[in-house]
Amino acid sequence: MNTTALAPAPVVAPSRTTARTAGLLYLVTFLTSVPTLALYAPLRERPGQVLDAADRTGVVVGALLEVGLALSCVATAVVLFPVVRRHGERAALGYLAARVVEGALVLVGVISVLALVGLPQQATADPGSTAVVGGALLAVYEGTFLLGQSLMPVLCALALGSLLLRSGLVPRAIPLVGLAGAPLLLASDVAIATGVYEQGTALAGLAALPIAAWELSLAVWLVVRGFRVPDPAA
Asked: Which of these, 17, 83, 150, 203, has the minimum number of CB atoms within 10 Å of its CB?
């Protein structure tokens, strides 16, 4: 009896729609995160003090943008997880978990910001206690920012970058930037946490540039070109 071996199923690239959706969501994370650095400046400069109408509006807009940031962070992982899990279940789960934690920490920061805005509006509030509580709420936001918007991107870059490098779904240069930038940003996070320098300084900004470049280049590639055909051996 003759037997005919079944031909292996062809390897195809994930759908163009999936790639475009993931890329657009990554772009949303940029559009919703960058403006808050300026919008929250009055709170950092005068925690616990009454803000004028323009500053209050800016802070509220920043809080709304960060809600969008939290949702888009989780959404990127939800969209990419089915694609990258084929190339490493554990790393894919790690990426998904890091993105969910990032979104949750961003929302905790938003709550502290909104509480900080409303704090001095209470007519019966004691100025001294208001300043103390305001400083504490600002510290909560700074802590959630460090963990959520700085440390979690390190973990995401390591997990997703390794998966994309292994699979060949995008050009190797893109995940290599993320994998190279992750240790640099991690070292910066440790320096900030131990008081070597503060968030918002030039050194902190420089340390974050490679991760920003990795995420932006990934977003643009996915929107414009989509996924490549994955490496069958990956």
From this structure: 17
CA distance 129 to 127: 6
Tell me, what's the pLDDT at 123?
A: 45
Q: Phi then psi for 131, rounded to 5 degrees?
A: -65, -40
CA–CA gap between residue 154 and residue 44 (Å, rounded): 25
- The pLDDT of residue 129 is 72
How wide is the angle at C-alpha 32 spanned by C-alphas 28 and 33, nearest 5°?
115
Query: How many of the other CB atoms lie within 10 Å of CB of 225?
Result: 14
SS in 3 state form for 164-186? HHHHCCCCCHHHHHHHHHHHHHH
20-56 residues labelled b (16+ CB within 10 A) or e (exposed): bbbbbbbbbbeebbeebeebbebbeeebbeebeeebb
Q: Which parts of the chain register pLDDT below 50? A: 1, 3-11, 123
In this prediction, residue 130 carries a pLDDT of: 72
Closest by CA to 200, choosing from 211, 210, 188, is: 188
The helix or strand, by DSSP H or E, that contains position 97, with its residue range, turns out to be: helix 89-118
